[in-house]
Specification:
By secondary structure, this protein is of the alpha/beta class. The chain contains 15 helices and 18 strands.
Length: 479
Amino acid sequence: MTSMIHEATTDEGVVRCRVLLLEDSPIDADLARAHLDHVDGFSFEIEHVVSRQSFLDALDQGGPFDLILSDFALPDFDGMQALDLVRERLPETPFIFVSGVLGEENAIEALKQGATDYVVKLRMQRLRLVVRRALIEARDRDRLRSAAQALQDSEAQLRYALQAGRLGAWELDLANGRMQVSDICAANLGLSDGRDLSSYETLKACILPDDLPGQQRAVQHAIDAHEDLDVEYRNVWPDGSVHWVQVRGRAVYDRNGTPTRMMGISLDVTERKQAEERQNLLLEELNHRVKNTLAIVQSIAAQTLRSAGSPAAFTEAFQARLRILSQAHDLLTREQWQGALLEEIVGLTLAPYQGAGRVRIGGPPVMLSTGVAVSLHLAFHELATNAAKYGALSVDGGRVEVTWSADGGEGDGEGRTLTLDWRESGGPPVVAPNRRGFGSRMIERALPYELDGDVVLAFAPEGLHCVLAIPLSPRVRLR
């Protein structure tokens, strides 16, 4: 199978591969084709089948194939049965599940049964990496088998690297700087062929300049101290992207103690490094959010205490506002703290009153940052609470209309303003209060400061009317 791939290499170095795609959805099949078109170093001839019989016919009559992609849930059989058929007929062919329903348990079982890898359709961009890695690994395995006698010394290290799991193998001649590397090792540096990495100078050219001195010191120390080499550094791929690689190895010495060569393994650790960075950012963000939340709670407590007529009234009002704050945090948690839609915030606040058709909500999709979402949720809660106690929602015929629009120019960026309009009607005649409570003060003073906007709160006799104008920005943007 893999030798066929080598024979089908074009003059431009692009490897041609035949792919059998088992997918009953035409849309998903087209999506898979689109992602395969962007796999560096490979081009694909795709045979698309949708049923068990057409899949069998392709295996028996249309092969050989270099790669098989399969959905998990199919009309007349499932992906595990397709995997069994491939293992019987083409045991060396990489088999990758591309499915929208493949859970963790099924994925683990599929890998145990011989699947090469799996891709969830919600993360189809991962297909490019998985396919490229599978084909490179298949080509490495083929080279190891076909060159077993000629490369007997390096066979053990390559086998160890492959068995250890997606590890590249390398060897450096310390006398002349020549290198021999596996295709997986080259792939760790963004190269499609091990022959592209033939010298130590070529390797150094791939390393990020800031990391090169540390890499060279680590190599020299391992040689001088007769210790294992273990170093991580960043490398720049041909497409300009930066990746992390971990390199381990050991020097070999002649009988006089002179170092003659080094050999070892390499591993792409970009995902681990990115995960560590994300974790650090999350910890910093969590610390920031906890401090902000405590500040909000402190402010709510102080403001509620000043406006409460009794300890019982303070307890009731304070607990209600904490519940609203908790609801906003629950919504943001579901969205992984990436913000929330304005419609979700308004709907969450007015949900108890929407069943009777007394509330109308409308406006374009607007994404709010976490801080803005919490502030608006608290403000809408105060407006809704006032409407339920004294305003339009306190009587059967009352209505509340909440609408919003973006004005001023085109696009979703600087220069435009989001205008939110809260309008009550059909309620008791409104009389302006003699003194401002917590809700009024928060809406008229704190909200404009927090959102860098303007607020007009009008106690009109026919119903309370609140207009909030917020400049569009990365914190408040049209979706």
